[in-house]
Batch of 2 targets.
Target 1
Amino acid sequence: MTIESVVWDEWYPVAIAEDVTPCKVYKTRLLGHSIEYACDADGRVTAWHGNAERTPCKALTRYHTHWVSLGDPPERFFALPEFDEPDRRTLGGGSMTVHVSGLRAIENFLDMAHFPYVHDGFLGAEPYTDVLPYDVSIEPPGEIFARNCRFFQPRGASTSNDGGYDTDYIYRVTRPYVALLYKSSPHHPGRMDVIGLFVQPLTEEWCRAHTLLLYLDETTPDSGLRLFQQTIFGQDLMLLSNEIPKKLPLDSRFEIPVRADAMSMAYRRWLDQRGVRYGTYRELEAQAMPAPAGQTLTRAVA
Ligand SMILES: [Fe+2]
């Protein structure tokens, strides 16, 4: 298949820097292609196609993450000024392979409505199930923001043990497979922890989700921060693995827009307007493959 330029000519994460052993060759997939990568003793990453010729791919390291492109990616990377703040902890939160389109993984990351059901006791709890109104905007250089998000969380961070509090969120989508979450830091009023979800599309229906943590936390050991993040993502795994279809529908017939889904709708519209097709499910394909009787094509949790 021919992959559209907006997807092909893009940088994709293959690993968080600390998870790569120098001088060891790693094999993975990107957009259905076999690739290999390695870091030298100085941490410099190189990548190549997994063919006999070992055709080189473009590779670089940004934000503690190794990125590879099969095409002609933009010179300019998305901005992440918090990465340069000296008092932040920077570490990987884990990389997980999931049987779902990477676009589905991003959309799930942007969704607050599932917190009380999927992350009960952590990011939400019944009866606090309402998603309060929030503001969605497209801001230069064409990124999606959801601002003024607020949700009651019993244990929104690894250091929270005081019975819960209202957590302020900002969501940001910089590229089709890159999303960032800013959430109020329990011990630093006015500042926010940052979680980056960088998704590697292995194929249209499989992805590897890499998580980067930029935390304002002086006390929790790395293992504690990672364990908390992996616990949360582990809870999402069941939801994501059961999504039908595996690809992200860009046809509004399949979803019922409600207020809580404002960010999801903005993300789908934004993908559609950019011409993203890889990893999406369209009406023509739906007509060719009707849903089995009695099976509805909606979010698993709505
Ligand atoms: Fe979740």
Target 2
Amino acid sequence: MKIRLLAHDSKIPNLAIMKISTYHKMRGDDVDWYDPMFDMYDTDIFYESKIFTFSPDYRYYPVGATIIRGGTGIEVKSKLPDAIEQVTDLDYSLYPDCDYSIQFMSRGCIRKCPFCVVPIKEGAIRRSKPFELNHKGKWIMILDNNFFACPAWRENIEIIRSWNQPVTFQQGLDLRIMTDEMAKALSTIKIKGRGIYIAYDNYEDKDMVLKGISILTKFIKPWKINCYVLVGFQKPYITDEDLERVMTLDKVGVNPFAMGYVDFNNPNYQKPQEIKDFCRWVNMKATFKSCTWDEYKKRSIKSN
Ligand code: SF4
């Protein structure tokens, strides 16, 4: 059977597509990326993954093929069939230049933040069987939604240590549950560059966030830590509290990373211009360090 794949809005190697590829290759199928120039009329099964609701829809579907579309951008709760979901050997040959491994030690989360799709998509936290590493991989991107909320986090730290490769914790470690034991355990594994991510999404969490950072920085250098700062969710513009959050993080030596809220339920959702400008100001370190938000805003208004 001829199987063709599409993941046109994925910024990193697409996990579902790599599982689908492995599954079909194990069955002896002809599997590759879809190219409408060559595959338009003789593809048997076409799989499309769409991550973002706001990505433009694909237009060049194969004729006569079984078309299977999934991903958060199509249906938040979409799931792979069990036989494909259980695949743990990801097909990295689809991404020959990828020099890292994608990894999950757990799925789901203990929280239900109103702006997040994880509780709807993945449900309660549970341990998951790690994937085989990319044999060309030099480092590992850990994508757990809430690594330390998984009761098996100590065993998971041991597994990561046994891989003996630098890692990043990309999705935000939960400062609300951070303890000395957790922070110390983190310091025993190799962290790649600024590979620790945390989050400061609500101004009201200030005391808890600062306490969590003070625990973390007993064992981890602050410059290794990035902090996601959600803006545009409570109010569709930048508030004094938003500005205070990024300045507080900068003051304690942690790198703020502003994230504009995206409404995954609304395909027509557009981020307000002020939210986009603020994210650009915070995340382009040259501007953040060289001018104030007021100065940057005035310049942006003139150029828009
Ligand atoms: S803690 Fe993180 S992953 Fe969990 S619901 Fe909140 S934002 Fe989502």
